[in-house]
Amino acid sequence: MRRNDKEIKDAKLIKSLLKKALVCRVALCDGNKPYIIPMNFAFKDNCLYFHSAREGKKIDVIKKNNNICFEVDAKIELLKSEKPCNWTMNYLSVVGSGDAQFLDEVEDKIRVLNIIMAKYSGEGSSNEDVEKPNKTIFEYSRESIKKLAIIKVNITEITGKKSLH
């Protein structure tokens, strides 16, 4: 990172940002073309989890090249100034990379869906049962589970950056 003074070195803060962010931008490489998409996600045990339809461009790209890059941000605030070149932003961000894999077992899919649903619904987020594959807080139809792809990203590199004025 060019600006060491902006680097977030606190691993707890980076993990907190990953847990609280609502959208994760996932960057893939489709041959020699970049491809980026915003996705809902969850963070657990140094992994990111995404859900998706089983078909589509991102699925095809990941099957060809499972290396991904991701970005999340928080506390975005535009700071205006009298001079245009002095406008700036407050923000916290996390950028990282990792390798993606598909989870195919029904129990794994339910476990990950419970983690994602607990995050976004606020229900069960403090309940240990949310991660037990045979104990669901949320109900999913077998048909929905069959149509669903769960993508697990093992994070291999991560860095945080802040600009707070």
Overview of this protein structure:
- The protein has 165 residues and is of the alpha+beta class.
- The chain has one domain: Pnp Oxidase, Chain A (Roll).
- The protein has four helices and eight strands.
- Strands 1, 2, 3, 4, 5, 6, 7 and 8 form an eight-stranded antiparallel β-sheet that branches.
- Strand 2 (24-30) and strand 3 (33-39) form a beta hairpin.
- The longest helix has 16 residues, at 106-121.
- It is globular, with a radius of gyration of 18 Å.
CATH superfamily: Electron Transport, Fmn-binding Protein, Chain A
End-to-end Cα distance, whole Å, is 19 Å
Number of domains: 1
Q: β content, as a range?
A: 35-45%
CATH topology-level name: Pnp Oxidase, Chain A
Question: What structural category do the secondary elements indicate?
Answer: alpha+beta
Average pLDDT taken over every residue? 89
- The gross shape turns out to be globular
CATH class: Mainly Beta
Largest sheet: 8 strands, antiparallel
- Please give the share of residues in helix: 10-25%
- Count of DSSP strands: 8
Detail the poorly predicted runs.
none
Protein name: Pyridoxamine 5'-phosphate oxidase-related FMN-binding protein
InterPro entries: Pyridox_Oxase-rel, Split_barrel_FMN-bd
In short:
It holds the Pfam family Pyridox_ox_2. The protein is α+β, with helices and mostly antiparallel strands and 165 residues long.
Question: Which helices and strands appear, and what pairs or packs with what?
Answer:
Elements: E1 7-8, H1 11-20, E2 24-30, E3 33-39, E4 42-44, E5 47-53, H2 57-64, E6 67-79, E7 88-103, H3 106-121, H4 142-147, E8 148-163
Antiparallel strand pairs: 1-8, 2-3, 2-6, 4-5, 5-8, 6-7, 7-8
